[in-house]
Design a protein that fits this description.
The protein has about 290 residues and is of the alpha/beta class. It has eight helices and ten strands.
Amino acid sequence: LLTLAEHLKARGWRTEGYVSHGVLSRPYQFDQGFDVYDASVVEGRLPRDITTAREVTDLALQALPRLAAGPQRFFMWVHFFGTHWPDEVHPEIKTYGTRPVDVYDHQVAYLDTQLIRLLDEIAKRPTPTAVFVTADHGEGINTISRYHGDTLDEPVIRIPLLARVPGWPAGRIRRAVSCVDLVPSVLGILQSPKPDYLDGIDLGPLAVCVLAEEIVAASDGAATVAPPTASLGELAALLEQCRLYLGGDTGPMHVASLVGTPVLQILGPTDPIENEPYPGTPSRTLRVPVACSP
């Protein structure tokens, strides 16, 4: 079984990991596929010991300029453990009370400040960067304690999975997804097929469907989500029934124009003359020139 780092390293990526708990140190072999695997903040500590998110964030922030200046695309895994028990007090963070849920909120608020540091630095990169934020479990909270690992309660199995990926529209996928979808989704971004033995799905198509569903909801019945098509002939037959095709310079756009469906073509750097719709079909082109336009 290959790790995500091994998949990406095999595709020529630079891979680095920065971890914050002893169970992820090198003896447990989580370093498979990493060019750099930095567990320095937990060396010499017991597995029950924790570190603050600031330490591992500092390591990641030190690595980012070097990775960004390098010749390779890179994968960085930054692992945070600080929301686990035993709890720490962070004087600079608001306290919410003494109940277990209040103490947990204090830990999460502190982690948020460190995530913001990291995400803000990533956002400064001139090249758009795909970012995934997730967890391996949730947290059950009652009036006297917090818990995970020994039940399948909804708060324990429900986890955050946030993605900011170039080309993915903003929105929320309503169906259930899972951490097992992460590796297929990353490979999907690279347009690299996933191995047959992998579970999970590429979330990219679902993310695009979110935008389509929002457009349909706002259309007051004028639009609908098209059914899937299994062949070029089925796609042509579907597009022939449409009153308008709106999209970029894609294969379906040219098929729509060939079957006589009016086209509104949206372009950025693409040459509007070389890639225009079929001349015999009514069409308009909306183009926003960018620096790399021909």
